[in-house]
Task: structure prediction
Amino acid sequence: MEAFTFYNPTRIHFGVGMITQLGAEMQLAGIKSCLMVAGNGSIKENSVYTQVMNTLSKHGIKVHEAWGVRANPTLSKVREIVAIAKETKAEAILAVGGGSVIDTAKTVAAGVFLADPWDAFCTDVPIVKALPIYTVLTLSATGSEMNGNAVISNTETKQKWAFYSPLVYPKVSIIDPTVQCSLPFKQTANGAMDAIAHILEYYFTNQIAFSTLGIDDALQKTIVEMTDRLKLNPSDLIARGNLAWCATLALNGISGLGLSGGDWACHQIEHSFSAMHPDIAHGEGLGVIMPAWIEYMSEKDPSRFVRWSKNVWGEDSVSRGIMRFREKLEAWGMATSMRDLGIKERDLPELLELIMITDKVGDVSKLSAADVEALLMLAY
Ligand code: NZQ
Ligand code: ZN
Result:
């Protein structure tokens, strides 16, 4: 095992009907008014909004509302909501939605104390303060409900960057899997792929943290099995619940303990895909680049991928493990190439430039520009 520090202060209320806990939690923390951040209306269609309003009103908490956060959320929206948070003197930020809404809420929570919220992403300005964050999760994918990360796109510069701060872990997150029955299967599958990718970013970094690797084998297999069940029956609550919890565990610290801090090359590359093409869902982009990365890296050193092929996909040969992975994503109806994602061949030079902007792709297996170019060709 490598040395590690584990920190996770988020209180989770998991299960059917748990949205009712929200008002009491905020009241206990002395919060009298909050700003709710939301997306483009799914929470009104599936009753989540009504449930949230009921619990807040029961506990006397005043709510202002900021709607319209899109998937692959933008800096301009964050700036708009920071202004609302200041104007309404929000005491807390409440995110009701998926990763995009939660990440926007986190950036707003820190951004109200910064000269500009983008400072959180690209300068050495320390984040020393943030409003308390509460979340009601409606899409299991990113783990944002129980971590200190946020990812936002600056559409002017086409940079989709992340920041981490211990100050933006949600105080409380509610995960009621029933509210995810309204998801189209495509979003469920994208979320499953994102969770698998979070595990894999850690998984291949060393081969000796057996306890964590064993947890990660089980998480991956459960995610695949539950997603298969949800393809057949979107209202399968046993599958919804298990998938939801696996996705939280995939990026709340647990899945990487004793491994290194993770590689994150595939995430960096995918973030550039969706920075350039905001219609590309994060999980779907990962479903294209991650199998290609495994294929590319296994040509150099197949031994790193033997355990994964065997334990997750039941295959002795790495190339057959990769094949099983790709077949599964295809069976879930996901894109299998960058071409499928709608990326044009003429975009590739600009994409490469965007990916290489920080001069560092991959924290463990560092990729040069030539490596990334070869990888893109493999994924195209
Ligand atoms: O706009 P609304 O109405 O909210 O609809 C959303 C959106 O259209 C819809 N949706 C969410 N819950 C639903 C639902 N539709 C029906 N029923 C429900 N219960 O789903 C669509 C996608 O939502 P989004 O929040 O964008 O998806 P996701 O949770 O996958 O978040 C993706 C974003 O998170 C970032 C990604 O890069 C991307 O920007 N990530 C954040 C991370 C983190 N904070 O730790 C780590 C990840 O690696 C990732 O980068
Ligand atoms: Zn991800």
The chain has two domains: 11-179, 184-379. The chain has a mean pLDDT of 97. The two ends are 37 Å apart (CA to CA).
